Amino acid sequence: MRDGSLSPAEAARRLGVTRSRIYALLQRGELDDVGDGRVRISLASIERRLAAAPPVGQPLSPSSAWAVLALASGDGAFRTHVAGRLSDPDRSRARARLSRHRLLDLLPRLHGRCTVRRFAVGAEALVDLLRDGRLVLAGVTAARALGWSLPAGTWPVDAYVPQAALVPIVEQYDLEPDPAGDLILRSVPEPWPFPPHARVVPELVAALDLADGVAADLTELGRDRLGELTATVEPVWHRRPPRPRSVRPLIPADPPPARRHRSARVNAEVWDDRAERDARGLVAVLFLAASPLRRVEAAEALRISSARLSQACAFLRASPPHGLRLLEDGERLQLVTAPECSQLVERYLNRAPPEPLSQAALEVLAIVAHEQPVSRADISQVRSTDSSGVVDTLLARGLIAVDPRFGGRGRPSFLVTTELFLRHMGLRSLEELPPRPVPTSP
User: Fold this and answer.
1) Contact, 278 vs 254, CB < 8 A?
2) Which of 75, 102, 162, 164 could form a disulfide with 202 if both were Cys (CB 3.0 to 4.6 A apart)?
């Protein structure tokens, strides 16, 4: 600082923005240039700017805004999905923003994550719309699904939709723009930030939607939730296992190894070798078990952490053993025959190939796979015909089963897919399911 003025670089550091932002504020007259020939910003205008608004800078692009939200959410699936669609510089910038500022200070920069529109919709169309797989529940609707205590009142249905699907959805359900309508659609440009089959946004996004609202009660609830959820935010995209500590002999026979610099990084080949070694052990354990193992049991048998087990599973997905495949069904792991070897195995066992599924059975399987857990009545309603016989056939073949967490005491039972379904379809997990087909209007 010199004579009560700062250089553009010093002003940028003081306000926590880029240098180009400083020049933009100078052009708009929000900062004072007191330099003679060289740009010098008066300290008084800097202090005035700090008092007027937090030093957050310009609104972020949609992809940058979602990168910040994914990094701050603590939701592993959400963070991994968004990280896979970002470049290394984008991930670094999101981490730097959260390191410099609290998420609450960055709220004004996150408005560009979506475009909010409000529509009037009929009751029947709204019920059908809530079943549309292109929607991800947001705002008050997501808060209600997450079990939050909401203030009394009648609130509109709120959801995120891909920007490319907004016009087809408006035309399909005959939506009319209405500032006081019962439906809020938040259109998001590509890349779509939510994982496949997600129906409700992460808690952090739901709280942000409430904080951005116009109702004072909801805004206060959203900001309180954001403060709780981001109290212990650690802006890290990927977490590596801790570096093993070296053990020195009591009486060293050789000169001690040269100390490595603290900032030196572990060679990636070391981690690859360890992942391959863990993967070989996992194959051996699953082969001896001859039945599905929970991830906790597999980690205990190999005496490794859950992070190392995940690396071993990723290694087997990329490089499966010859003739075998790792089947991952939630928390369970199993070693199964590769689909391309199924005919050889059936010939060896002298078994006839299974009877192909009918078109009705395939339709019911698709409904259960995408909507699970789902009741018989819901299946019949989606197909507009009684599906009890088809459901009984799929239950007998073991492709679907009754979810033990639901039903009983007069309540309807709910159906889910089984491990046999994954093997029948040649899938490793439900995440490999193709997206739901978009219904076309007649």
Assistant:
1) no
2) 75
